[in-house]
Write a structure and sequence with these properties.
The protein is α/β, with parallel strands linked by helices. It is built from eight helices and nine strands. It has a single domain, classed as NAD(P)-binding Rossmann-like Domain (Rossmann fold).
Length: 253
């Protein structure tokens, strides 16, 4: 008889996870995906009202979840969040201020970089330090973008922040691998969320998107959930320092 290999577990029972930007869209989807797999999920976001509503819906569905109002650009508050280590951290908080490059203001630049790159950097270091201090492995996942791989019209600042995030993750993966800490990104295409509605409602922008995506539809939040579970679980135990593109073929062409 041949000894057959066994698929590594996607089960997250007993794991503690932090998901930022969890009050809507991709962040909420990631929080639900981890909770469905058995993790206890701390859901963090800036808006207490919507956050509490999402957590109430999750607990009503039988999931283990709690709310943490948090502005992760407040580095003192962010550091305090990691007084205890999280086995899994998903950073879905982000911002975009799209405009022609020549119209970018310093305020626009600083606002996008502050949340998309600066807070992501220190969230990662705080998460890793807490794991290292407790001798634990872990998985850190950043929601990046296909725009971290390519360029886009009116998106120079956003692209800069996401390209920076991709390089940051590679460097951190090299440093933390020996500690068993994995760090990766998920790079979605345009996903249908409340925040993207203004883009999808613009006929010219929608035509541009559909021309670039090779599959015959735009992305949905559910398209991201499986990737988040994979990167959070033992199924991806040999995956670090890389990006998972969920872009419908955008970057292939």
């Amino acid at each position: 008889m041949t000894d057959l290999p066994r698929t590594p577990a996607f089960d997250l029972t007993g794991k503690h996870a932090l998901v930022t930007g969890a009050s809507s869209g991709i962040g909420l989807g990631c929080a639900v995906a981890l909770a469905e797999a058995g993790a206890h999920v701390t859901c963090a976001a800036r808006r207490p009202g919507p956050l509490q509503q999402c957590v109430a819906s999750m607990t009503s569905a039988g999931f283990a979840a709690q709310a943490l109002p948090l502005d992760q650009t407040d580095l003192h508050a962010l550091e305090n969040t990691f007084s205890q280590p999280f086995d899994i951290v998903v950073n879905s908080a982000g911002s975009a201020r799209h405009s022609p490059t020549v119209d970018t203001t310093p305020d626009d630049y600083d606002a996008v970089m502050n949340i998309n790159l600066r807070s992501a950097y220190f969230l990662s270091t705080f998460a890793a330090k807490a794991l290292q201090n407790n001798g634990k492995p872990g998985s850190i996942i950043h929601i990046s973008s296909q725009m971290g791989q390519v360029g886009g019209v009116d998106r120079a600042v956003y692209c800069a922040s996401k390209h920076g995030l991709e390089g940051m993750v590679k460097a951190m993966a090299i440093e933390w691998g020996k500690s068993g800490i994995r760090i990766n990104t998920i790079c979605p295409t345009f996903i249908r969320t409340p925040l993207s509605k203004v883009t999808f409602d613009n006929p010219e922008r929608l035509a541009w998107i559909m021309d670039k995506i090779k599959l015959p539809r735009v992305g949905e939040v559910e398209d991201i959930m499986g990737a988040a579970l994979f990167l959070a679980s033992d199924a991806s135990a040999m995956v670090t320092g890389t990006s998972m593109l969920i872009d419908g073929g955008w970057t292939a062409g």
